[in-house]
Design goal:
The chain has 168 residues and is mostly helical. Helices cover 84% and strands 0% of the residues. The protein contains two helices and no strands. The longest helix is centred in the middle third of the chain and has 134 residues.
Length: 168
């Protein structure tokens, strides 16, 4: 009976030791699982924070891209307006040049006529002076009078601004 009790006691002790060993293994496994879960949670939280930062950056990039697109569109509109104004100005310049050309041609003709008349007047004055010198002093008093009569000498030269040289 004693042997049987000893044997049962030994079996109970062995069973207790085995249970305690399993309990330690389960506790170690549970502790390792908790550690792994905490690490996985920390990794997940870090990834979620990174994802939030990434989404914020992506949203900011989209806003910046939209602002850039609006700015480019605005500048292109301004360029179109300036190109239109430039085209209008070029058309105006061409129209004014076309309208001025007959006036310039007329001015050149008048200038040539004036130069011809001045040359003819100078020639006539010289001939007159020579005639008076040959025929004596009786016509010498009219020398100043003939110069004062000529209206051609009183014509002022036209003024041309520095940006537009005279056409000769």
């Amino acid at each position: 009976v004693q042997a049987m009790q000893d044997e049962q006691l030994a079996l109970a002790e062995a069973s207790l030791v085995a249970s305690q060993e399993r309990e330690r293994e389960a506790a170690a496994y549970s502790h390792a699982s908790r550690e792994a879960t905490m690490k996985a949670r920390a990794i997940k939280d870090a990834e979620e924070r990174e994802l939030v930062v990434y989404r914020e950056r992506e949203a900011a990039a989209k806003v910046a891209e939209a602002e850039a697109a609006r700015s480019v569109e605005s500048q292109e509109g301004l360029i179109r307006v300036l190109e239109h104004e430039c085209q209008d100005h070029t058309t105006l310049i061409l129209r004014v040049q076309h309208e001025e050309q007959p006036l310039i041609d007329q001015e050149l003709t008048l200038r040539a006529q004036r130069q011809s008349l001045e040359a003819q007047e100078a020639r006539l004055r010289t001939e007159h002076n020579n005639f008076q010198l040959r025929n004596g002093a009786r016509g010498a008093t009219n020398l100043g009078a003939s110069a004062a009569i000529s209206p051609v000498r009183e014509i002022p030269q036209p003024y041309y601004p520095p940006s537009r040289p005279p056409l000769l």
